[in-house]
């Protein structure tokens, strides 16, 4: 009897119904990938000279990582039912720490650690306010966003710092060099980040807790999940990732602007939601966010290629965020 | 009350700011005893339960003994290590997650580095589903999302989770709420199963018709204190109903001898 039942359960796993279940479960992610392919085809037909040459893809791989590096860990934060809006300022904070440490000590390693430390500090601040004091992350991180931006602006007096001394170093090549002259190093970092975050989320206890916290925080607590510590860690990861992304974006142009990060808020958040992560928490995938980042990157390039002004970008990203969260919610109600 | 009891709470009080949820409560659960906990909304049932499970900390002055040992600073993790397991009505499941993730919630099987052993957890879940939960439908597999299950099935998941982790004391928080008649019968059968398995249980419910047939002893809580205590075979269902009404009216049971020991 038992073996027969097991056989039936086993059969349900692999055959037809399993596939249908997979499709239903990942409908939003499959949708994202389909949208990505569709946009790609449209661009190839619309501007074949641009989109059939390698140059455009190299451009994607060099600029998309600036926000993809943050969208990936932000996906985890949003799955846990929280949000971080402070990352654009943390990009600037981390890179300011890097630029000034480098200017005063000339030590790249030290400067790199200063950058990471600034990211950790920003993360601990957010985590302390949100997880420790129980303040809603939406409000807390709007506050820290302005605060850290203010710190950077006051500290630098609004002046940029040249990062030219980093040019030609091994460190520079590792961060933003071109592998074989073709693949930007930041793309490799993004792939590495995606794999690391996906592993953490799907194959590690930490990720299991992230999903549980976002799905039903009360039950997670009752079942002994250390919610406070998990959230703290999420914000720290986010802070470090933002500082790292800021450093990569600045090294690419070998200049640190104190306004660094402006404009990344929309692209990053749009990538997460377009990737199928639920605005209510509890569901979301790294694959979805990864694909969505490149859709957003392509749209960015596409807007320029088509000849629309930069003013259109905000309108379009805003639309993408609103459409993806509403469609997602409608879709998940239908499929539930 | 004697020292061989599994759990003894004495002089437990709990205040939340200005509100006194529990006042000098003495409560105990014997070995292999099923205790029914009755009381109106706001009587302090959930607060008492959450103290036993380590979720709330009682005010200083009280004492908690488990297996004769004094327990200080009880936490959720500590309570679980001791073998105190709670089955909360629905609340304790994460709806958008797979069945196996719910079974192992907060207690995932991992390697030393924290890497999930997904195949093992799926295997155990599959075995539990067939052998213990009685899920026979091919549509339910370890990867099924919990939100697609019926109320009774969810209850089954929560109950099996407690059993799997070898609880000494299982606390059922309104396990029959929102269940159909046949699902209720299944849940009550499970309470009898706890007794047969030699474990102890605290059974909380509004409905005395559900509680009465399966418990050894009944404790009535009212406005934060113990209003009465009865051994099940010494009181009939009619008398009990009568007494509950009296408690609801007056807040105490004047002239009723408090019958302690099991």
CATH fold category name of the largest domain in chain B: Rossmann fold
Beta-strand portion of chain A reads under 5%
From the spread of the alpha carbons, the general shape of chain B counts as: globular
- Count of discrete alpha- or pi-helical segments spanning 4 or more residues of chain B: 8
Within CATH, the superfamily of the largest domain in chain B carries the name P-loop containing nucleotide triphosphate hydrolases
Q: What's the main sheet of chain B like? A: 6 strands, mixed
Overall pLDDT score of chain A: 88
> What fraction, in percent, of the residue positions of chain A are helical?
over 70%
End-to-end gap of chain B: 8 Å
How many beta-strand elements of chain A? 4
CATH first level of the largest domain in chain B: Alpha Beta
Mean pLDDT of chain B: 83
What is the beta-strand fraction of chain B? 15-25%
The neighbouring-strand order within the major sheet of chain B is 6-7-8-3-9-10
List the helices and strands and how they pair.
The complex is a heterodimer of chains A (336) and B (262).
Chain A (H helix, E strand, L loop, with lengths): L1 H13 L1 H10 L1 H20 L1 H4 L2 H26 L7 H19 L2 H25 L4 H20 L4 E2 L7 H7 L1 E2 L3 E2 H19 L1 H11 L1 H6 L4 H27 L1 E2 L7 H11 L11 H21 L4 H25 L1
Antiparallel strand pairs in A: 1-4, 2-3
Helix pairs in contact in A: 3-15, 5-10, 5-11, 5-13, 5-14, 5-15, 6-7, 6-8, 6-13, 7-8, 7-13, 10-11, 14-15, 14-16
Chain B lengths: L6 E10 L2 E11 L4 E5 L6 H8 L10 E4 L2 E2 L5 H7 L1 E5 L10 H5 L14 H16 L17 H14 L4 E5 L7 H16 L3 E5 L3 H4 L5 E6 L2 E7 L5 H14 L12
Parallel strand pairs in B: 3-8, 3-9, 6-7, 7-8
Antiparallel strand pairs in B: 1-2, 1-4, 4-5, 9-10
Short key terms for the protein model shown above:
heterodimer, A: 336 residues, mainly alpha, two-stranded antiparallel sheet, two-stranded antiparallel ribbon, 79% helix, disordered N terminus, B: 262 residues, alpha/beta, Rossmann fold, 2 domains, six-stranded mixed beta sheet, four-stranded antiparallel beta sheet, 10 strands, 32% helix, 23% strand, disordered C terminus
